[in-house]
Specification:
By secondary structure, this protein is an alpha/beta fold. 51% of the residues lie in helices and 11% in strands. 43% of the residues are buried.
């Protein structure tokens, strides 16, 4: 218990730091929106709406938040602007807890990098457009599982780009886990097959498959993902157990668009939102977490090996509104 308590303190600090730019930008906009105003009136609500939209929370989620605050204002006409932070925090928190996509709603989560015990090896296929942070996220994930004594196998399924295989091998070496690779321009589904086979043979706990972010066309890409799935199912019929879509949080609205497109074209079961550090667009996490039926499972808050966290809505809101 104490051990995880310690981890969560570190986790919190990393999260606070990772969200700094987003918070700074959000609260300075909010400050400007209410300057010279003592009560939350129509005009303040309009300003607030623009602040939320320009903070990449997304139109749909912004409208929901504004509607909730309007209801409160209707009850309390003299609500002070000094209370706006608190009210926003409460409404965003309750909005996010409304959709119960939380991964383990039925029990206390001590350590989120847990793997389901009844699926061994647990097969994770990582997808997303190029440059969003797939390979880095795989390396970080491998490190977390490895740290917890799990046997990890990586599959270098991005055979499209020259440096992709080497990049994954580098992560494999760093973490100390095997990487299955056939080199560049080989069939990615054969790599996936071998990686799942190898993991099964060595009774590994988890296998993570990297995939290409870019092919000649989008249709090619989606067909390839389908083929990779089909081929790995020859080894493990219910694989992949997780299709993790990686989105670059610093692209703001683009991340929404990619999430929409990918979830239409292929089955996605979890989301990872990366690069929240160094961007003021961290509000996307709130919007994406609200709008997609698929849980945001991980967030990337830096380039270092430990800068991947499991996403917890309440921790996120806490950190966001912490002064
Ligand atoms: N600051 C920051 N940088 C990140 C994060 N995650 C990934 N990156 C950086 O983003 C860049 C691209 O990451 P990759 O992991 O290569 O992305 P990819 O999706 O595998 O890209 P392709 O292989 O080209 O499809 C690298 O420079 C990473 O270090 C993060 O959470 N924060
Ligand atoms: Mg890559």
């Amino acid at each position: 218990m104490a051990l995880f308590g310690l981890f969560s303190k570190e986790k919190k600090e990393t999260l606070d730091k990772g969200l700094e730019k987003t918070k700074d930008s959000f609260f300075s906009k909010l400050g400007r929106a209410v300057v010279g105003k003592s009560t939350v009136d129509e005009e303040v609500l309009d300003e607030l709406e623009s602040v939320l939209i320009s903070s990449d929370v997304g139109v749909e989620t912004t409208v929901k938040i504004i509607r909730r605050i309007e209801e409160r204002v209707a009850r309390d006409k003299y609500m002070g602007t000094s209370e706006l932070d608190r009210i926003l925090r409460e409404e965003i928190a309750s909005l996010l807890s409304d959709n119960t996509t939380s991964r383990t709603p039925d029990r206390e989560v001590l350590d989120d990098f847990e793997l389901p015990a009844n699926k061994k090896p647990y097969v994770i296929m990582v997808v997303g457009v190029n440059g969003v942070g797939k390979t880095t996220t795989i390396g970080k994930l491998a490190a977390q599982f490895h740290k917890r004594g799990k046997q990890v196998v990586l599959g270098a399924g991005d055979t499209f780009r020259a440096a992709a295989v080497d990049q994954l091998k580098l992560w494999g070496d760093r973490v100390g886990v095997p990487v299955i690779s056939h080199g560049m321009n080989t069939d990615p589904s054969a790599v996936a097959y071998d990686a799942v086979k190898k993991a099964t043979d060595m009774n590994a706990d988890v296998v993570i498959i990297d995939t290409a972010g870019r092919l000649h066309t989008k249709v090619n890409l989606m067909n390839e993902l389908t083929k990779i799935k089909r081929v790995m199912q020859k080894v493990t019929p219910d694989a992949p157990h997780e299709v993790l879509l990686v989105l670059d949080g610093s692209t703001g609205q683009n991340a929404f668009i990619q999430a929409t497109e990918f979830t239409k074209a292929t089955e996605v079961t979890a989301l990872a939102i990366t690069k929240l550090d160094g961007t003021a667009k961290g509000g996307v996490v709130i919007g994406i977490s609200d709008q997609f039926k698929i849980p945001v499972k991980y967030i990337g808050v830096g380039e270092k090996i430990d800068d991947l966290q499991t996403f917890n809505k309440m921790e996120f809101v806490d950190s966001f509104f912490k002064k």
